[in-house]
Each structure stands twice: as structure tokens, then as C-alpha cells.
Amino acid sequence: MLASKLETLLNPEENLQGSEVRYITDKVTWQYYERLLTQLQDSLEFRLTYLDGILEVMSPSRNHESIKTRIGDLLLIYFLETNTEYYPTGSMTLRNPEQRGGTEPDESYCIGSNKEIPDLAIEVIITSGGINRLEVYQRLGVREVWFWQNNQFQVYHFRSETIEQFQQTSGYELIKNSELLPSLNLTVLAEFVQHPNPLIAAKSFRQTLNE
Q: Which pick of 98, 115, 119, 142 has the fewest CB atoms within 10 Å?
């Protein structure tokens, strides 16, 4: 059934506008999830998220991909202009069979040194709902998660020592500024993400950083 659903999502006649499509099913074994990852390999058509037998398959829209790419482009400028040591890990598949969780962020980075698990994961949210992604990232050991939603960033930092205080957000605290990139003004970054011209946005953002 899931295989036929994927074929439907891929069918251009079913998705003429290139809109974001999400499909969620339960009672999926970890073995099936891994087999599906192998079948899809490095496909750009789908993003898979798995948590305790629930599988979410998302086919990103053009708008989704445009935003995530622009965020990545602007962060690259930030890293270069501030001489920040970074290691991009993109949309690499993160999974932990023992914790029964796995996902593919829109963008991800190791900050300071290269690590097996990225320090920062970024998700572009076009349509709400679906699997609790903070729970997935907590099980994977990601320190900080940014959600781009409603034209702004929401930043969550994991608090291992006070995890019980933030049970509703899987141990993550909602904060105003990134603790991984404390000098980055996320309000300013959000303004340039929304700029209608990517080239002008990139040049202006670089100029802002150098002022």
C-alpha cells in the first residue's frame, strides 16, 4: 500500500501544482523503514521521518525547497564572513535503531568540529502536523533545532540537565537566539530569507554582517 502511495505522489498528474504532500502511516517496522531508505537512496523526491512505528513521507514543494536553499546560502555567507568553523551535513539521513527514530533535516551543520551527529538541524515547515520532530531529534542527539514557520525562526536548544522541565518539548527549550551561533541575529536573517530577490538578499546580508 505504501509503495503505491509513493507512486501516486510521484505522478505529476496527481500533483500538478507541485504542492507539498505528506503521508503518514503507522505499524511500520524499523526494518521496513530501512529498506525504504535503501530503495529511495539519495532521492530528492521524498523526506522520511520515523518514530516508534509511525512513518511520515513528505514530498517537498518548490516553495519549501526554495526557502531551505536560501537559508543555507545565507548561513554560508555568515560562516564565511564571521570565520565560523562549520561542517555542512545537508539533508543526511539521521537514524538510531535503538531509539527507534530517524529523519532527514532540510539543512544541518556541525559547528566547531566535525561530528557523527550534527549540532544544528533546520526544518522548513510549510504545512503543520505530523510526527513530533523534536522528539525525533532528541533521540538522535541533535543539540539545537531551528524551525522556519510563518516567516520566522523558532529555535530550540536541548537541556540535558533539566530535561524534565521541558517535557512538552522533548527536553528542548524555546529560546530567542541560537546558542550555537550567538552572534547571528535571526530576525535579520529571516528578513533576508523573505527578500524577493535572492541575489540582492545575499549581497545585502553580507554587507550587514560587515557593518
A: 98
